[in-house]
Amino acid sequence: MITAMNKYLFLIYHREYEAFLEKLRTIGVVHIRETKATKDVAELQDLLNLRKEIAQTKRMLASYKSEDAPAEQTLTLASEADGEAAMQDAQALFAEETRLKGAILSKKREVEHMEVWGQFDFASIERLRKAGYEVNFYSSSSSAYKPEWEEKFGAVAINTVRSTVHFVTIGHKQDARPDAERIKLPDYDLATLRHQQEELEALLEANAKDKTSFADNRMAELTAYDNLLSDKFAFTSAMVQAEGQADDKLMLLEGWVPVSEASTMEQALAGEGYYVEQMQIEEGDKVPIKLKNNFFARLFEPITKMYSLPNYGELDPTPFLAPFFMLFFGLCFGDGGYGLLILLASTLFKGKAGKELKPILSLFQWLGGATTIIGLLTGSFFGIALAEVPQLASVKKYFLNQDNLMTLSVVIGLIQIIYAKILAGIKIKIQRGVKYSLATFAWAVIITAVILAFALPMIAPKVPEVVINAMFGIAVAGGLVAFFYNSPGKNPFINFGSGLWTAYNTASGLLGDTLSYIRLFAIGLTGSILGGVFNTLATDMTASMSIVPRIIVMLIILLIGHGLNFGLTMISSLVHPIRLTFVEFYKNSEFEGGGNQYTPFKRS
Predict the structure, then answer these.
(1) Residue 289: its pLDDT value, please?
(2) Rounded to whole angstroms, how far apart are CA atoms 177 and 314?
(3) Does residue 102 lie within any of the structural domains?
(4) What number of other Cβ atoms are within 10 A of residue 19's Cβ?
(5) Are 604 and 233 within 8 A, CB to CB?
(6) Cα dihedral 281, 284, 287, 291 sign
(7) Model pTM?
């Protein structure tokens, strides 16, 4: 559900404004109305960019963290200078890494360049030069190299690499030279270059250890620095959101406070000399949204936020989509073994997970549990068809077959669509009043009555005729409301035309929306079939092997096959329920969204 909010106006003398904001931050419940965007304030933009740099640096350092690293401690920095120093140290490590990698790459090129000449003593060449001889190094293609150069210029072939001849000449400076590319060698011999490369690589390893040490022991400094900047960002933003009044002598600020926290805020500001007035919430106000749900629905709030928060004038869809999403996930996975794996893995990792990850793992515990139950009902366990297991013959009739599953998918889809129509009616009732919501409720009644009128004879052939007629009667009554009272106060003929248009859209939309739910059956069936295929491959392909090799090969096939199937099914089981929620459910419930997250002005 959406937490109720109060709107407040604060009027403060300009010299007391900063002290007032400090007081407000200490209270920590006021969401300040934004009058100036972050992009319009240079100081805020600079702080935001700096925080992005810190976040990027922390992400880069996280990959160097050792497995046995101590838990990150909560620190409070004395000043921004301490945080800047930590940030500079971290960035210096990455700058040094970049420099070393560049130097190693350059040194490798020098080594590769020198390897074709092999190891020789530079001192010997220097002695020849002092004696008046010049040693020159050349490269030439094999086709261009001429054997007579050996006699004419004293050429000596050293090496031939990929049709290129590398050779040297020894002679006096005034001697003629061969028509070939002259090569300038590095200043060091091959052994020295390799030693220099090893030294650089050792420095790079030491740099990696330094980053590991920083990640293990000083990451908290960056977190504290980010928190410090976050507080500064919030305070600076609050400073510029007020509007000056009476020649800027008075500062006018608006904010939002949850109703449950309003008395606390009012008592804290009482007697401080500040003017505080509760305002009437007006249509068009961007009221911040704070969701408050029970322990189960709260786990599905990230899914709601993935699309958009609801606006203040509508229902929070989270508790209404939660059971359906869990059911859809289980139907798409469709395998009890995979569900049990998700449940056990989530439970195992939850104990060691951080505060931010625990709710996600709790969500997957529920999703895994639902998948396990649905997988057992559909008779699939790691690709094994339970209905074909002789020991389970007595319960075979209880497993859902393919026809049952397809019908179930359509029925669940119709239930969610009707459910969404009812929610749409409730939303309109809240926003505009009962009479404006009657037509929307009527369509939910019409769809339900017509479906029951046709479905009841198939489910229970002996159902009395009067019940069927009653369903049609209810549908007709709903139709009168939907066609003639869809816009209260307007001409009945206009209402009838609007009703016809709505009927066309509802009929065509209902068919398409309902068919969309068949993918629940199709995806679940695909995963089960693929699991069975990999099981068959593992047994049939190894049938002629002896026991030990057969077990090893079977395990390899099963691990690769089921791993691939599990990954693909996991993606499908997340994507398609989200799609059904955001398209079919949200469309029929007339979800608007566009809400802003409630972010109270307080210290990090």
Answers:
(1) 92
(2) 90
(3) no
(4) 13
(5) no
(6) positive
(7) 0.76
CB 177 within 8 A of CB 136: yes
> Looking at residue 493, what is its pLDDT?
65
Report the length, in residues, of the chain. 604
Radius of gyration, alpha carbons of the chain: 37
Q: Give the helix, strand, coil percentages of the chain, each rounded to 5.
A: 65, 10, 25
Residues 6 or more apart whose Cβ sits within 8 Å of residue 4 = 258, 259, 260
Convert the pLDDT of each residue in 96-134 to its tens digit: 999 999 999 998 888 888 877 788 777 777 787 887 788
Query: Comparing C-alpha atoms, which of 155, 73, 161 is closest to residue 117?
Result: 161
Q: What is the mean pLDDT of the chain?
A: 84
Is residue 143 domain-shared with residue 4, that is, in the same domain? no
Domain with 422 in it = 297-588
Count the domains in the chain: 3
Higher-pLDDT residue of 262, 480 = 262
Give the contacts of 530 (CB within 8 A, at least 6 positions apart).
383, 561, 565, 568
Nearest CA-CA partner of 110 in 10, 233, 194:
194
At 180, give phi and psi (nearest 5°).
-145, 165
| Residues 305 and 269 reside in one and the same domain | no
Please give, one letter per residue, the 3-state secondary structure of 91-130: HHHHHHHHHHHHHHHHHHHHHHHHHCCCCCCHHHHHHHHH
The confidence band for 42, taking pLDDT boundaries of 50, 70 and 90, is: confident
Q: What is the mean pLDDT of residues 319-333?
A: 92
| Exposed / middle / buried, residue 40 (Cβ in 10 Å: 0-12, 13-18, 19+) | exposed
Among candidate residues 360, 280, 258, 295, the one with its CA nearest the CA of residue 599: 258
Dist CA 68 CA 82 (whole Å): 26
What digits encode the pLDDT tens for the residues 526-547? 888 888 888 888 888 888 888 8
